[in-house]
Amino acid sequence: MEFVMQEPVLVVGLGGAGCKLATSVKNRIGCECLLVSHDPRDLNHESTKILINTSPILNPSVYLIRGVSFGARSSIAEKMEPYSTIIIMANLAGKSGAALSPIVSQIGKELGKNVLSFGIMPFKFEKDKIFFSGVSLKRLKANSDCTIIVDNDALLESNPDLTPDSCNLIANSAVLQVVSTLRNSSLPLETNILSTSKDIPDVETSLRDSIKMLYEDASPNSIKSALLYVVGGNKVPVGVLNSMVNTISGIFGNDSTRVSLSVTGGESSKVVLLTSIEGETRFDKYDPLGFISKQSVLDWDEPESSVKIDLDLEQIE
Questions:
Q1: Which of 54, 111, 201, 264 is the most buried (most CB within 10 A)?
Q2: Beta strands in the chain (DSSP E)
Q3: pLDDT: is 239 or 103 the higher one?
Q4: What does the DSSP 8-state code read for residue 285?
């Protein structure tokens, strides 16, 4: 089974990075856009927007943002209703992305929409964000037909000379590359890992860096299919492209692993590798209790949240 995009399409951006990506996707594929965040600065774009108002709290927790968002469920559902496909862009390293992705994806699932989600994971040194990102990713995957994980930390480990901002730019470019081809291609269902490299003239070196990034997140034995995007591949000799496909097939070493190639034009050259994963990834360890099946958890239906309750209580001394 594969995920196939159906018109009309709505891309939903959650939080700062998610809103920026959603706006770029809107311009790239010509779809409608919905921006949702607790920070008004994230909504400074010409698109439909919903503010999750946590005022007067200046620094709300993930749980508080999520709790307040329940009041906007009907508004979000109303915006989603006319569309067949919902593409969710969520930076799970940010508060809004981690808080809202379980809620928004659950709404899409309840409405019976085709839900494709992109979850951007935090850097390893952002230790205070790892747990929240792992919990949100688990729910995002459960509510989505297809989930694509972008691991900035793996990109940084493969290229230690890069700055965090450079990693974000490279990862965002890879996401846009995948989204721009959705009208003419399909994606494997379930969980996919997106790996890439910085712009370098040698596409074979770029492929090596992409594979190195993939190895940070999953073992080769867990890979069931691979889609190889070669940006600038229209200038690459056919023999080199054939060699790259054979290299990927040989590395994964499984006769059932399907390898596909997509060649696109571009001024610079690099490889974007999208692999379908079956089994555990390192993200499953972000939540220490993630190994517990949701069938064994009493409170799985509603994600953890807190709410603002103004109680007029007299102080008792």
A1: 54
A2: 2-3, 9-14, 32-37, 48-51, 85-91, 114-121, 146-151, 187-188, 190-195, 223-231, 258-264, 270-277
A3: 103
A4: G
Torsion of CA 214, 220, 223, 225, to 10 degrees: 80
**Residue 17, token pair as written in the block:** 């990075």
Measured CA to CA, the distance from residue 154 to residue 211 in angstroms comes to 11
Sorted by where each starts, the structural domains of the chain and their CATH numbers stand as 1-144 (3.40.50.1440)
- Give 82-128 pLDDT, tens digit per residue: 999 999 999 998 899 999 999 999 999 999 999 999 999 988 888 88
Q: Which helix (H) or strand (E) holds 165?
A: helix 164-180
* Interacting residues of 305 by C-beta distance below 8 A, sequence separation 6+: 63, 64, 66, 67, 69, 70
C-alpha angle 16/228/260, rounded to 5°? 130
Indicate the length of the chain as a whole number: 317
| Residue 304 pLDDT > 60 | yes
Burial annotation 245-275 (CB, 10 A radius, 16+ → b, else e): bebbeebbeeeebebeebbeeeeebbbbbbb
Query: Three-state SS for 236?
Result: coil
Cα–Cα dist 123/141, whole Å: 20
Q: What is the pLDDT of residue 255?
A: 60
Q: How far is CA 184 from CA 25, 262, 292, in A?
A: 15, 11, 38
